[in-house]
Write a structure and sequence with these properties.
single chain; 254 residues; alpha/beta; Ubiquitin-like (UB roll); 3 domains; 3-stranded mixed sheet; 8 helices; 13 strands; elongated
Length: 254
């Protein structure tokens, strides 16, 4: 057991499993070694058993461990029985897969180490890498699937943690601000350390930035966006200790 919620031991710790039920005076033997990173889940199961009055025996003495993984002689025995032409090891850490390929090659089999996203061609006498495809976790976001590395989830987390600010500025035909910029916030407090309106403070700081900016900055949308964003984030950091996500909207009158 590694503390997985649906594992037999975890279900027993919560009540029943397959008609079986633990009771006071029973003994539960953990013959597994806890995989680093799973300690919290395993301890939760152990404590649940303890609260039932169940005695726990683990492998801390080194006497009871039973491995669920085949060792080298086991693998070689399987190779001798099955006699595969091609071997692609699956399930294990990279170093384990690599070692398994070495064992196969040493016994005259064609082996290849295929990592996630690697497409292998098995049509010939030996395996060949055909191509690479995108791989990794995907999430269902509403009715749309998104990749874990697409940045959508990361952006959502940043907005949840830091809030969001929208800044709107109108520039006239002479590349000068038409009136003061205005700010809308979401997920941020109304007041900061100064006990003044956070929106008003940011608008005032943005107005000062526009008043100090040179003509080159005011003409260049990229430079203007960067300056406005820096100003808002600095104002928010000074007042509430957070740097929110910022959307800048610059409208230019033609």
């Amino acid at each position: 057991s590694q503390g997985e919620r649906r594992a037999a031991s975890a279900q027993l710790a919560r009540g029943k499993y397959m008609g079986l039920e633990m009771k006071e005076g029973d003994m539960f033997l953990f013959s597994s070694k806890t995989i680093p990173g799973n300690e919290r889940g395993v301890i939760k199961v152990i404590n649940a058993f303890s609260e039932m009055g169940v005695d726990i025996v683990d492998d801390s003495s080194g006497l009871y461990h039973v491995s669920g993984h085949a060792n080298r002689p086991d693998l070689e025995t399987l190779h001798d029985v099955v006699k595969p032409q091609i071997l692609i090891p699956m399930h294990g850490e990279h170093r384990h897969l690599r070692e398994h390929v070495k064992i196969a090659n040493g016994k005259g089999m064609k082996g290849v180490l295929a990592v996630n996203g690697m497409m292998i061609d098995l049509s010939g006498n030996e395996p060949k890498v055909a191509e690479y495809v995108d791989s990794g976790r995907t999430y269902l976001d509403g009715s749309t699937q998104i990749g874990a590395m697409d940045g959508v989830v990361r952006d959502r987390i940043r907005m949840a943690l830091n809030g969001h600010v929208t800044v709107t500025v109108i520039m006239d035909e002479n590349d000068e601000a038409l009136g003061d910029p205005w700010v809308d916030t979401m997920g941020l407090p109304e007041q900061g350390r100064s006990k003044s309106s956070l929106v008003e403070i940011m608008e005032a700081d943005l107005g000062q930035f526009l008043g100090r900016a040179n003509a080159k900055t005011l003409r260049d949308d990229d430079k203007l966006h960067d300056g406005l964003k820096r100003t808002v984030r600095q104002s928010a950091n000074d007042e509430i200790g957070k740097k929110p996500e910022v959307t800048i909207v610059v409208s230019r009158l033609s």
